[in-house]
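Internal tracking record. Fields below are filled automatically when a chain is submitted to the structure queue. Please do not edit lines marked as system-generated. If the sequence contains nonstandard residues, flag them in the REMARKS field before resubmitting.
Queue: standard
Priority: normal
Entity type: single polypeptide chain
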Amino acid sequence: RLDESFATALQESTELFLNASGTTRSDERDQECVAALTLLEDTAQQLSDSYASQAIAYRKQRETKLGTLVGCTLPPSGGAPGHAADFTAAFNTAAVRMSWGDIESDYGRLDFDGADAAVDWATSQGMRVIGGPLLDFQDRMLPHWLYLVEDNFHALLDSVNHFAEQVVKRYKGRVQIWNCASGLNTPGPLSLSDEQVMRIAMTLVQTVRRQDPQTPVIISFDQPLGEYLAHHRNGISPIHFADALARSGLGLAGLGLELRMGYAALGTIPRSTLAISQLLDRWATLGLPIMVQLAVPANTAPDPLARRPTSVIAMGDNGTSDAHQMRVASSILRTLLAKPFIHAAVWEGWDDTVPHVLPHAGLWEAGGARPLLEYFKRIRRELLN
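SYSTEM-GENERATED OUTPUT FOLLOWS
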């Protein structure tokens, strides 16, 4: 249900655009084009917000509290996060990185101390645990010694398989969702063919399911709108790759979408919430539940503690800021909660004052908590189990 202001704004913006297309003076045309696009963007946001609020209200009529998992990724160092009470007040789920590059940083030596402490803490708080990604196929996230097997695909596959077996055996029964891999669809530090990438994905899923047949298994896809294909035209289309895995009979329980909004080199370029909603609906046609991993930066300055340093696209009238992070992230989060096929939403950053993965995505900074943290607490208190 939309009020009259929506129809009025839509009509006004359409008229501005039509006037611009018919004028011969470039200065008038430019002004009317900008005015039309600005008004259309505001109208699209009104449409998205109206949909989200009404859909969430409808869901609450059917279930007192939503069953959606809303979580955050714990710091790579593992263990209990700083400001632990705030973490448990904001989230019902903890994502524990069990990345190959972190656990087997030295060939043949597995260090589970950080992951052990993180899983133990999350379990003690009664939180659901998402384990993974086991294989994070992105720059700076793989073991540094992989050059030893880079030219021997079978040795690489055996190493991946052995690592996955050890991790699943160790945490079986304490992890509620296994996230097998991240970023296999995007160009990574290793040069692999499409067939080899598919074999790695299938091997990971089969290995995890063989060791732990009861726990749901998912695979995550980076840049689900396919921005990377502009520079790698022979790359794998994200939704086609997901479709092939979904139809392969592997028993995937869901798909993960990684939305790193506003990161120039390795993220999703800025888009309206309406465009994100349409993206989610398109992926839902694959017939599997979806987990969304979301990150929105709050600053454009260099971040010396970020493991994957990248430039941030400056957005908003006052630049990228805490307020911009709050505005963009809260709108997307409401849309995620409005859609029943979104089973989990995971924020990809907790504390920017300790080593972390993405620049300025944390809910804590040197000056204290960012406003978005209070929004997560309100969601947890009012909507979630």
